[in-house]
Amino acid sequence: MISVVVREYCASDYTDVLEIDNEAFSPKNPAYDLYIYLTYGSDMLVADIGGKIVGYVALMEVGLEAKIMSIAVKKAFRNMGIGGKLLDEAIKKCKERGKIRLFLEVRVSNYVAQHLYKKKGFEIVDIIPNYYNDGEDAYVMALNLAGQ
């Protein structure tokens, strides 16, 4: 069994996180995305296997709510529970900080991610038309943390 440690992001993780973001989302400028996550985000957690970063989650806190800005796992390490571990740690961190709700956006076609989020208690609360650059809509999903 693979031993995965979820820990706080540190500067030496930059290249690995950049590679994962680029592989998962093919953004025009992955370095800019990472800059936004680190500048405007409250936290970034990484999944570490023996010193190699294989996934990350970026959180932004606003008042009593938080938003998952991005979550991704390296393709070679998907379907191993790593995304779930990252999500669990993000939820735990939000609860510890007294957040009442956690949001995220997900492509309407990304059934695998939606299944994971629903398994963790997220519900679809809205749809944003033409959210992505290619015109695809996004579901807004929310997890109520109060009382959990």
From TrEMBL:
Residue limits of the N-acetyltransferase domain? 4-146
- What are the protein's GO molecular function terms? protein-N-terminal amino-acid acetyltransferase activity
CDD domains cross-referenced by the UniProt entry:
NAT_SF (cd04301)
Gene3D superfamilies listed in its UniProt record? 3.40.630.30
- List UniProt keywords, sorted A-Z: Acyltransferase, Transferase
A cellular-component GO term for this protein:
NatA complex
Can the keyword Metal-binding be found in this entry's annotation? no
What is the superkingdom listed in this entry's lineage?
Archaea
UniProt keyword Transferase present: yes
InterPro entries reported for this sequence: AcTrfase_RimI/Ard1 (IPR006464), Acyl_CoA_acyltransferase (IPR016181), Ard1-like (IPR045047), GNAT_dom (IPR000182)
How is this protein named in the record? Answer: Ribosomal-protein-alanine acetyltransferase
